[in-house]
Amino acid sequence: MYRILIIEDESPAIKKLKRYIEKICDSYEIIAELKTVVDAKSFLAETHDIDLIFSDIELRDGNVFEVYKDVSLNCPIIFATAYNEFLMNAFEANGIEYLLKPYSFERFTNAWDKFIRLKDNQPANYNDLIGTINNLIKGSQDSTIEYKDQFAIKSHKGVYFLKIEDIVCFQADNGIIFAFDKMNKRHIMPQTVFKEIEGFLDPKKFFRINRSESVQRKFIDKLERYNKNTVSVYLNSGSKTLKTSQNTTGDFNSWLGV
Q1: One-character DSSP codes across 196-231
Q2: Which CATH superfamily is domain 2-137 in?
Q3: How far is CA 111 from its chain centroid?
């Protein structure tokens, strides 16, 4: 029996993982489902018999690598995330595979098969590993990924289409996600979870600067230091000014190449 730990903060993603695990494995136990960095640190600080961890990266209260730098693990991790910029961090933290959401069952199966080979003490194919890294860096990990070029938005008059290229930023507020276009017009998105939207966006173009706001690169006019660990982000010729969180500032600056 395989003892599996899931670190993931979105219920749809947890359900998908459990459904795929059930399809591919006859004997397993989900020993815990953890949704925050705090819970993961507390759980892994104790002694647990774990065969495999499925882990998201951006959780409700921070980045999961805060956990892995503080605890010592003897089990492999399969990362499942909507972000591709953490690839090298993943392989430095016991990662054996990197599933870029939305991933297919075929990709999941390949990741599971790699885990089984390692568990059975079969030699890992180094060339396969390097190939995986190179493919991910080139953005070709999963040919099934198709980024949207527009969203269908419902209104009282019917349905209209909002083009991705015109979206300056997304903001979440009390369970509603709004998109703001280059004319600063607000659009109510049909999705209610940020990660649902991010799965359709090219991560080279959009970056979530804090828990509730995501920006499109081409509409960033300038950055200014807000305090020691955050920056102000000026968008679309001053129509909006947002701020990064302490947890995202470093990665955001790297994403921009500054």
Answers
A1: HHHTTS-TTTEEEEETTEEEEGGGEEEEEEEETTEE
A2: Response regulator (3.40.50.2300)
A3: 17
pLDDT tens track for 162-221: 999 999 999 998 889 999 999 999 999 988 888 778 878 888 899 999 989 999 999 999
Q: pLDDT above 90 covers what percent of the chain?
A: 49
Same fold, 2-137 and 150-256: no
**pTM higher than 0.85:** no
For 150-256, which CATH superfamily applies?
Answer: LytTr DNA-binding domain (2.40.50.1020)
For residue 204, give both structure tokens. 């080279």
C-alpha to C-alpha distance for 4 and 54, rounded to whole angstroms? 8
221-248 burial string, b = 16+ CB within 10 Å, else e?
A: eebeeeeeebbebbbbeeebebebbebb
Three-state SS letters, 171-198: EEECCEEEEEECCCCEEECCCCCHHHHH
> Each residue of 78-119: pLDDT tens digit?
999 887 778 778 877 888 899 988 788 999 999 999 899 887
The predicted structure's pLDDT at residue 47: 67
Evaluate whether 190 touches 152 at the Cβ level (below 8 Å).
Answer: yes
Nearest of 253, 250, 251, 258 to residue 81 by alpha carbon? 251
Rounded distance between C-alpha atoms, residue 98 and residue 107, angstroms: 10
- Mean pLDDT of the residues in the chain: 85
Domain locations along the chain = 2-137, 150-256
